[in-house]
C-alpha cells in the first residue's frame, strides 16, 4: 500500500520541521510538500493532490481556515486537519463548518498527530480529545436539537441508519464495511448519500447529528 501523502503548512520553519520529524517516524506517511502561508498551501494542494493537508490557523496571505475552505472546493479528495495552538470554540466551529476532517492542538501527544493523519486519510474524522467534548457540547442543545436531529435522520434508509450509527461512533469506512459485511465502496456511497440527506458538510457534522438523534 502506498504511503499517505501529506502537505504541511505553517509559517514557522521550526514547527514544520518538527511536524515532518514526527511524521517521518511512520513508514506509512510521506510529506510531499510544505508551505509557509495559506495561499501557497492551496496552490500546492492543487498541484500534488495529497491525501491529507495539515494547516496551521494563523498564517500570512491566507489563514488556515480560509485555506481549508478553498481546498474543499479545489481538491475535495484532500482531507484537512487544522493543527493549531489555539483551541477556541469559534476556531473549531469554523474549521469543521468549512469542511475540515480534523482539529488537533499543537500541545497534543505526537502520537495523536500520526493517528489523526491515518484516521482522516481512511475517511474518518479526528478531534483532539482536549476539544472533542467542547465541540459536541457546543452543537448539542438537548431539547430542540435532539428533536431536529431525529427528524433529519428520518430521511435515511435502514442501512444508512446503520452506517450513520457506526460513523457517529468514530469508525472509518473500512471498519464500517467490516462490521456490516459490505465492500468499502458501498460504505462510501452510503456516506455520500447520508451527507447529502442530512445537509452535512463533513463526517464530523454527520456524527454530531447521530449523537443528537441518539444513534451514537
TrEMBL record:
Keywords assigned: DNA-binding, Phosphoprotein, Transcription, Transcription regulation
GO process terms (BP): phosphorelay signal transduction system; regulation of DNA-templated transcription
UniProt modified residues of type 4-aspartylphosphate: 56
SMART domains: HTH_LUXR (SM00421), REC (SM00448)
Keyword Transcription: yes
GO molecular function, a single term: DNA binding
Highest taxon above the source species: Bacteria
Domain named HTH luxR-type: residues: 149-214
PROSITE patterns: HTH_LUXR_1, HTH_LUXR_2, RESPONSE_REGULATORY
Response regulatory domain ranges (all copies): 5-121
Protein name in the entry: LuxR family two component transcriptional regulator
Organism in which the protein naturally occurs: Umezawaea tangerina
